[in-house]
Amino acid sequence: MKLSDVLGGLKKGLLASAVSPFGASDSRKIKVPKAAQAKMAYASSNTSGAQTLNKVERRLINTDITTYRTGRDTATVIRNYAIASPDLSASIDVYIRTAVTGGYQAVAKNQDGTFNVEATTALQTLLTRFDILNNYEEGFSNTPSIRAVAESLAREFRLHGAAAVELVLDKTRMPVRLQPVAVSTILFEMDKQGQLSPYQEIDREKVSLDIPTFFYRAIDQDLLTPYANSPLEAALQPVLFMQEFLNDLRRVVKQALYPRIKVKLDSKAIMESIAPEFRNVPEEIEKHLQNRVRAIAEELNGLEPEDALVHLDDIDVEYLSRGNVSLNTELDVLQGIINGKLATSMKTLPSVLGQGSSTSNTASVEAMLFMKSAEGVQFALNDLFSQALTLAVRLMGYDIYVEFAFERIDLRPESELEAFRAMKQSRVLELLSYGVYSDEQAALALTGKLPEAGAPKLSGTFFKTQGTVAENPYSGTSQGTLNQNLNSDAPKNAKSKNGGRKGNL
């Protein structure tokens, strides 16, 4: 047997075990693509070399965005309003900025859950290549970083309720990049065995995505359909109502709210200014009056704010105001109804949309609920990256799985987080001292990278002696309603020392 045949068989076995960790069947060969299969949504079969791609120009400065309601489908309408509507755009932006946190942690583990140092080292090298080291031989590199991919996927989750990514391989079947795929271009078909198969249809060209390098994730999947539901679909009617309200308000402001000049002509004085021979001619009287009115209107309309108005006593000029009529109450009630529907339909904090007017306790509850919603997007991102990176590292010859996770969402500023980081460091070092964490796990938890070569081994050495438990020096909810209700009025010190004052002072 030739050496090339042996190496070829070994490579096929590694690929099969990498794609199917439960063992590949001999009757079915698992095919791993050697190039990108999914297409960009802006590509088409007519796209050739040196052809400039079209750039969408919405001209929002002169466009009534209520006309976007006539889009060809719901996905198109949502995408257009996500750019044109201030509220919808702010909602999507704040979700992306909240879910995609500043850092992430990725570790490779064996099938039994133990830490794999060699595979984690290979994983960190792969992530560095994705983030920074591009292939300079190919000229302009369109390889997105992990954060760039996460931002695109988070936007897809908000727009369509699902996201998809492809692990692109080179000719040697080694990972090259992670490529997001537009969910709006993905369709599903079912075979005779009831198995779903995704495919992409762009410009009437069908591309099968029934490949192991394609990954799809939906949030709150409806079991009655294979397609995801957009979380922003419920916001379309409130957004449209708000825009119609703003259009009407713009017209009302110009016609009713802004003061206008009222001019009253003295008809008797004007009649006396007509030549005597024309005072009994109706046509001449009408012509004279029209000329007089037109001249006064042109003079007043051409005035600048700093110009003085000089006129004869045959006209009376005054401001025309709304008097005692006020629409403030009606407008406030109507806008409050619309704002409430917008906030609930977009699952976004009212303060993010510029509508915050609640108390601090209510705002704390709203912030917590918003974090839970943003964590749903973050957890879905972690799932996609974990699955894609697991296959990437397995193709490198490691029988492992990858756990990828962005930093947990925290709305506190960096200056306040230092105390909490000190508590985390104390806990991680204590687990390292007891041998629960390996040196590599502790280094990743504290610094986000593996320890330097030659660093001392501290796992299980009991180097951290037992001391005082680290206390939390700050509590953002100590004065909250819940804690105040649970705080007993009974003094914990001697009454003589307490001075009869309420609480534990």
Would you spell out the secondary-structure blueprint of this structure?
Layout: H1 3-19, H2 74-84, H3 86-99, E1 104-109, H4 117-131, H5 146-160, E2 162-169, E3 175-181, E4 186-190, E5 196-202, E6 205-208, E7 214-218, H6 236-257, E8 260-265, H7 267-272, H8 282-301, E9 315-320, H9 328-345, H10 360-394, E10 401-406, H11 414-434, H12 439-447, H13 481-486, H14 495-498
Antiparallel strand pairs: 1-10, 2-3, 2-7, 4-5, 5-6, 8-9
Query: What is the β-strand count?
Result: 10
Enumerate the spans where pLDDT stays under 50 for 5 or more consecutive residues.
6-11
Rg to the nearest angstrom? 35 Å
Query: DSSP helix count?
Result: 14
Strand line-up in the sheet with most strands: 3-2-7
Taken in chain order, the helices and strands follow as HHHEHHEEEEEEHEHHEHHEHHHH
What proportion strand? 5-15%
- How many structural units, i.e. domains? 3
For the termini, the CA-CA separation is 87 Å
Query: Would you tell me the overall average pLDDT?
Result: 79
Largest sheet: 3 strands, antiparallel
Please state the structural category.
alpha+beta
The best one-word shape is: elongated
State the helicity in percent bands.
40-55%
